[in-house]
Amino acid sequence: MLQVNDVELTPNPHALKFLLNERLLKFETRHFHSKAEAANDPLANGVFELPGVLSVFYMDKFITVEKSRETQWGQIQRPLIAFLKDFDKNLIPAEKVPTMPGLDDNSNELLKKINEVLNQKIRPALANDGGGLEVLGLNGTTLSVRYQGACGSCPSSISGTLRAIENLLKKEVNPVIEVISA
Q1: Which residues of 94-131 are buried (b: 16+ CB within 10 A; e: fewer)?
Q2: Helical residues (DSSP H) of 54-142, grouped into ranges
């Protein structure tokens, strides 16, 4: 039985982070932007049954739900807590072995170093705010990323956070790195 231990505000006024008593995933992050995308994921699909849900992001021990501007949190919070209480965690699809784009035994050293910095300094901070960061690829020294969860539509992630990530990577990895959001 999943239990919501706490609900946290995120920098995105239309997203809340629901902290759970049990781990949902060990490695992966899962982000769905529609009920159709979540069709094969019973957890996310069930959350999309609630009125006004725009996206569902989950990892580790939390779920972040983004709602439409017109929907009030009262329409989502109590039904979500009730849904989670009755949800069988064993229905969550099995995780795949974690891989990063371009990361294999012969992978680009620059991309490996970028991911090390992201894993140590960026992803934990974004997870604290109910979000995540997916690396889509590296073309030369241009890193393409996609925000997940609360960060996906948060105004500060689109400009300020992106610049902060780029500045950190320039300082710690390579001074000519450019970071773009897809």
Answers
A1: eeeeeebebeeeeeeebbeebbebbeeebbeebbebbb
A2: 77-86, 109-117, 123-128
Asked whether 129 and 11 are in contact (CB, 8 A), the reply is: yes
Number of folded domains that form the chain: 2
Tell me the CATH number at 87. Answer: 3.30.1370.70
Q: Measured between alpha carbons, how far is 66 from 163 in angstroms, rounded to an integer?
A: 24
pLDDT tens for 59-93 read: 999 999 999 999 999 999 999 999 999 999 999 99
Whether residue 140 sits in one domain with residue 81: no
Name residue, tokens 């982070």: 17
Burial class (CB in 10 A: 0-12, 13-18, 19+), 19: middle
CB atoms within 10 A of CB 15: 24
Closest CA to 29 of 67, 66, 57: 57
Residue 108: C-alpha distances to residues 20, 91, 95, 101, 112 (Å): 37, 36, 25, 10, 6
Range of weakest confidence among 53-62, 84-93, 144-153:
144-153
pLDDT at 100 over 80: no
Q: Please, are residues 180 and 147 in contact by the beta-carbon 8 Å criterion?
A: no
Between CA 149 and CA 17 the distance in angstroms is 9
Q: How many helices and strands in the chain, by DSSP H and E?
A: 6, 8
